[in-house]
Amino acid sequence: MANSTMAAGAPDTGAPGNMGDVRRSNLALVLGRIVQSSPGTHLTRAQVAAATGLTKASVSSLVLDLLDAGIIREIGLNPQGERGRPGVGVELNPAKAVMGMEINVDYIAAGLTDLSGTLLLHQTRERDNRNSAAAPVVAELAALAAELRAAAGAQGIQVLGGGLAVPGLIDDKAGAVLMAPNLGWNSEALDLGSLLPGAPLGITLFNEANAAALAELRYRPAGAADFLFVSGEVGVGGGLVIGSELFTGPDGHAGELGHVVVLPEGVGCSCGGTGCLETVAGQDAIFAAAGLGGHTRSENLARLLSALAEGDASAANAVGQAGHYLGVAVASTARLLNISSVVLGGHFAILGGWLLPSLTESLARYAPGKVPPENIGLSAVGEAGALLGAAGSVVRTLVEAPHRLRGQAIEA
């Protein structure tokens, strides 16, 4: 996705396919191969050349650029798979990191990962963001990000850039939230530059469910390349992964599963519609149906889990109803998009043991054989999914265009 605050590389003055374009493409090819190497493997220049089809001389020059930019570092000698004198291995520089951030209805969060995706630091703070102006929410998140950035700096780690996930429709190019009904935001331009001032790769804005879907794609064990990710928070979101790529539609807004109508005669939704999935399967809807309320999200969730464990009928019925209507929405999505795998995140994953029976029964009724029970999985990354996905996409941007790293000796 585009990034409204990312520093662009030097403008191309030649025609497409000029030497600058070729060098940038080869730079991305080399960095991509290093990123794809298995943990603990330190490829040599010769091995990178063999894997990419580039000459050893070209790879050596490109590796020097990446070393100068600080994206990779040399580490020891690698005698594996080479004849004669062992070569010097290279790896992603552990002193470089990216930050994922999230604004949700009742919390803000930030997490720092290294370039290989390992979560280094993570903090979540409960905050009631409903109908709050965007500016103070962003300001508090900026303070949280500054704390993590300072902690990283104390360890000699530089934060290159970050991604911000929010539960709503976004315009990533303008850095604006077009509509986030559960936050009460409409056409809100966010001060993204305040989150990581001076970070060379700036900040990218993401839809929360899409970011979490990207995290599932990256962190899940090897499996299907096509799945529907369902995010369960106060609202309900969806992220579509097709052919190992996030599908967002022409305007970037595909996957709004929470606003699929499952109960036409139901109650009004925050989006302005009626009978949307999140009115019966969102957190607030489940808590209300279970007779819970008046507490924070974490407290209500803990009380719900306790009630379920004790066999409370109201709690079981509330979760069962949510699973049933989730099945209705997933069945329609599966038929429309030919998707046969589903990954549950957020409270859907936490409630999986009680939710899955009604969900699978609903799917069997409305889309028999389309989404078999064995193709319904729980999140591999948990509640940190959105910020991990946002952070990971910044790394992906860097891999695809390492020349964008501002102020480094890496331009063609």
Question: In terms of topology, how is this protein built?
Answer:
Layout: H1 19-36, H2 45-52, H3 56-69, E1 72-78, E2 87-92, E3 96-103, E4 107-114, E5 119-126, H4 134-154, E6 158-166, E7 169-171, E8 176-180, E9 185-189, E10 203-207, H5 208-219, E11 227-232, E12 236-242, E13 245-247, H6 278-281, H7 283-289, H8 297-309, H9 313-337, E14 342-344, H10 347-350, H11 352-366, E15 376-378, H12 385-400
Parallel strand pairs: 3-6, 6-10, 11-14, 14-15
Antiparallel strand pairs: 1-2, 3-4, 4-5, 7-8, 8-9, 11-12, 12-13
Helix pairs in contact: 1-2, 1-3, 2-3, 5-12, 7-9, 9-11
Descriptive report:
The chain is of the alpha/beta class and 412 residues long. The protein has three domains: 19-94, Arc Repressor Mutant, subunit A (Orthogonal Bundle); 96-213 and 386-398, ATPase, nucleotide binding domain (Nucleotidyltransferase, domain 5); 222-379, ATPase, nucleotide binding domain (Nucleotidyltransferase, domain 5, 2-Layer Sandwich), CATH 3.30.420. Helices cover 38% and strands 21% of the residues. It is globular.
Which stretches are low in confidence, meaning pLDDT under 50 for 5 or more residues running?
1-16, 406-412
Report on the biggest sheet.
Answer: 5 strands, mixed
Number of helices: 12
- By helix and strand content, what is the structural category? alpha/beta
Q: Please give the domain count.
A: 3
Mean pLDDT: 88
Q: Report the CATH architecture of the largest domain.
A: 2-Layer Sandwich
Give Rg in angstroms.
23 Å
Strand content: 15-25%
Fraction in helix:
25-40%
Helix-strand pattern, N to C?
HHHEEEEEHEEEEEHEEEHHHHEHHEH
Count the E strands: 15
CATH hierarchy class name of the largest domain: Alpha Beta
Shape call: globular
Alpha carbon gap, first and last residue: 23 Å
CATH topology of the largest domain: Nucleotidyltransferase, domain 5
Strand order of the largest sheet: 5-4-3-6-10
The CATH homologous superfamily of the largest domain is named: ATPase, nucleotide binding domain
Q: What kind of assembly state do the chains in view correspond to?
A: single chain
